[in-house]
């Protein structure tokens, strides 16, 4: 379970990224976070695994405060949280297998990780993860030889090899075309259902959020302005939240390619 209690994040320049957020997210939920550009979606995700330090409140992951943890305790909480980024964040010149094995570094000494000496059990785990996303045949290919969708699958496999209990995906499909977008979202959904991994995905497209999530959280100017089931997250409701009608570039099925064009602000 993830709990955010009165969480605020103010950037050093005074911008409020998050303003008194309260949320409880249960194990195994599949949540889409939506909102206009600048609404605070990335700030929220990066605060949960403490890539950003919050300025007020507390974030509790499975009973332990990540806000107050340091050193080994912080590393242990983070080991359970996998992150997926829009830009894939792979080591491009390394093989797919090495990139996936990077998910194991939290389980070994720094020296062992630097030397790249992973036990056979880790290699088995990495292959299992690659099989789950359908690219085991690419294990020995350099990451930069793969398509965008395949690279994002490597990033998903890395999180699986990490044996993460929570996946935070920050606009994971924003660099992908609509077909690949659906394939990557299918992978995330299947993994969520098969392994019960709590999944929180920031998405730009409202229709995509409705198609995959079971719960939608809407942000505006750092505040939660919608939190409910997909059935309540209608275009009309979001038009009211945004203060204007839903635009075509916020709907994947309006043929947006490549995905992720923005240019609107909260
Ligand atoms: N490093 C930073 N320093 C100052 N302000 C920041 C910083 N990062 C984000 N912000 C501001 O915090 C607010 C929330 O930004 P955030 O990136 O979380 O929004 P977002 O909903 O993820 O937007 P996008 O969809 O464009 O990524 C915005 O006003 C943004 O300008």
Automatic annotation (TrEMBL):
InterPro entries: AAA+_ATPase, ABC_transporter-like_ATP-bd, ABC_transporter-like_CS, ABC_transpr_PhnC, MetN_ABC_transporter-like, P-loop_NTPase. Residues 2-246 form the ABC transporter domain. It comes from the Bacteria. SMART domains: AAA. GO terms for cellular component: membrane. GO terms for molecular function: ABC-type phosphonate transporter activity; ATP binding; ATP hydrolysis activity. It holds the Pfam family ABC_tran. Keywords: ATP-binding, Cell membrane, Membrane, Nucleotide-binding, Phosphonate transport, Translocase, Transport. Coiled coil: none annotated. NCBIfam families: ABC_phnC (TIGR02315). This is Phosphonate ABC transporter ATP-binding protein. It comes from Paenibacillus oryzae.
């Amino acid at each position: 379970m993830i709990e955010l209690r009165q969480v605020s994040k103010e950037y050093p320049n005074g911008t409020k990224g998050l303003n008194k957020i309260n949320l409880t997210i249960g194990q195994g939920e599949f949540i889409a976070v939506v909102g206009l550009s600048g609404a605070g979606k990335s700030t929220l995700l990066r605060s949960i695994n403490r890539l950003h330090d919050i300025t007020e409140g507390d974030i509790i992951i499975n009973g332990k405060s990540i806000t107050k943890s340091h050193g080994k305790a912080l590393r242990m909480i983070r080991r359970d949280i996998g992150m997926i980024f829009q830009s894939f964040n792979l080591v491009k010149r390394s093989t797919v297998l090495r990139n996936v094995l990077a998910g194991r570094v939290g389980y070994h000494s720094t020296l062992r990780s630097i030397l790249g000496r992973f036990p056979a059990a880790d290699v088995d785990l990495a292959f299992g993860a690659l099989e789950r996303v359908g690219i085991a045949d690419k294990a020995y290919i350099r990451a930069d030889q793969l398509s965008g969708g395949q690279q994002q699958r490597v990033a998903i496999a890395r999180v699986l090899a990490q044996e993460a209990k929570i996946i935070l995906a920050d606009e994971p499909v924003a660099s992908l075309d609509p077909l690949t977008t659906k394939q990557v979202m299918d992978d995330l959904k299947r993994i969520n259902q098969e392994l019960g991994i709590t999944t929180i995905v920031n998405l730009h497209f409202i229709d995509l959020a409705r198609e995959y999530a079971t719960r939608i959280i809407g942000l505006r100017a750092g505040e939660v302005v919608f939190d409910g089931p997909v059935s309540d997250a209608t275009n009309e409701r979001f038009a009211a939240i945004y203060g204007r009608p839903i635009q075509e570039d916020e709907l994947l099925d309006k043929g947006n390619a490549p995905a992720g064009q923005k240019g609107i602000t909260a």
